[in-house]
């Protein structure tokens, strides 16, 4: 089971860690990011659509609208959802606030409010509705080494917008080499997963090491402009795309450190257009499982579309 967790964890850790110097009008900007992830027999596809204002700032990611303050940083974001869920008419309104230090570095993200109203739908499973409000929950905090504008530690609670379930606190630390993440260490918890008994938490320490191509990461200009990763606020973004990585899992939260075994690295395939921009990235994660050798645990592919 630990090896099945492996692809899920390292898939999510890898996606966003994986330009033009300005994101102004007329630049070849990222407008779509398509992610396909296979884990065992399951397959998941997600598309992220990016919209910009006349100043080149990201103002919308899928249903999330970003509002900027006087300091040029995002002051708050908002998501409004109406639809049908679980046989009910559902309305959900989310507001997140973003807090910055004097150096314009993000220090925390707070769930200001999550309003949920569910009402009966014609022919639905219930004749009564519900209404609830969550507010004032710190989702993420960010720590920085002296002189760095990128976080060296993020403490976060995972949350699938716009649902009510906010998971327990986790942590990831980063070591950088230039503008790229050289290695990361995550203290993670898995609670809802096949083969894990009810009310049991599987704590894991995840180590990840990277090697890089010279190809720039299409998410990096957005990351630099906003001061955080809008696709996943709990993950930092490197300037370049990786061409290989090595990861390992340790059960429990370990204070020890790990070293990469590059003979067991996972190679990353990059596809470039005529101008040298990345249009696709993919890898297949393989490894040993007990007596079985070179087992395929899963695969991940990303496709980038520019305006």
Description:
The protein is mainly β and 307 residues long. The protein has one domain (2-306). 7% of the residues lie in helices and 57% in strands. Strand 9 (153-159) and strand 10 (166-177) form a beta hairpin. The longest helix has 14 residues, at 2-15. This is YD repeat-containing protein.
Which regions are unreliable across 5 or more consecutive residues at pLDDT < 50? Answer: 19-26
- Helix-strand topology string: HEEEEEEEEEEEEHEEEEE
The overall strand count is 17
Q: What is the percentage of strand-forming residues? A: over 45%
Radius of gyration: 20 Å
Helix amount: under 10%
Number of domains: 1
Helix/sheet category: mainly beta
Mean pLDDT: 86
Number of helices: 2
Largest sheet: 17 strands, antiparallel
End-to-end separation in angstroms reads 42 Å
Shape: globular
What are the SSEs and their pairings?
Blueprint: H1 2-15, E1 30-39, E2 42-52, E3 58-61, E4 64-68, E5 74-85, E6 88-100, E7 106-120, E8 130-143, E9 153-159, E10 166-177, E11 180-190, E12 202-216, H2 220-226, E13 240-251, E14 266-267, E15 269-272, E16 278-289, E17 292-306
């Amino acid at each position: 089971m630990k090896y099945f967790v492996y692809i899920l964890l390292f898939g999510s850790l890898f996606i966003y860690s994986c330009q033009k110097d300005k994101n102004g009008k007329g630049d070849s900007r990222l407008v779509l990011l398509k992610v396909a992830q296979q884990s065992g027999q399951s397959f998941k596809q997600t598309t992220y659509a990016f919209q910009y204002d006349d100043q080149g700032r990201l103002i919308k990611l899928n249903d999330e609208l970003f509002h900027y303050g006087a300091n040029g940083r995002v002051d708050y974001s908002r998501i409004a959802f109406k639809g049908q869920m679980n046989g009910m008419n559902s309305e959900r309104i989310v507001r997140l606030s973003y807090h910055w230090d004097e150096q314009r570095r993000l220090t925390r993200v707070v769930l200001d409010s999550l309003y949920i109203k569910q009402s009966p739908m014609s022919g639905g499973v219930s004749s009564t509705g519900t209404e609830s409000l969550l507010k004032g929950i710190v989702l993420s905090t960010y720590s920085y080494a002296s002189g760095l504008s990128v976080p060296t530690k993020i403490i976060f609670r995972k949350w699938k917008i716009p649902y009510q379930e906010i998971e327990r606190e986790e942590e990831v630390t980063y070591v950088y080499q230039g503008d790229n993440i050289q290695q990361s260490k995550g203290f993670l918890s898995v609670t809802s997963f096949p083969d894990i008994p009810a009310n049991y938490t599987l704590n894991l320490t995840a180590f990840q090491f990277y090697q890089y191509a010279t190809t720039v990461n299409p998410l990096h200009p957005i990351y630099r402009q906003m001061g955080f990763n809008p696709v996943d606020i709990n993950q930092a973004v490197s300037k370049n795309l990786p061409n290989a990585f090595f990861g390992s899992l340790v059960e429990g939260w370990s204070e020890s450190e790990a070293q990469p075994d590059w003979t067991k690295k996972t190679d990353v395939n990059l596809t470039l257009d005529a101008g040298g921009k990345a249009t696709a990235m993919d890898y297949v994660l393989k490894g040993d499982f007990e007596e079985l050798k070179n087992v395929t645990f899963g695969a991940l592919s990303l496709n980038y579309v520019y305006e």
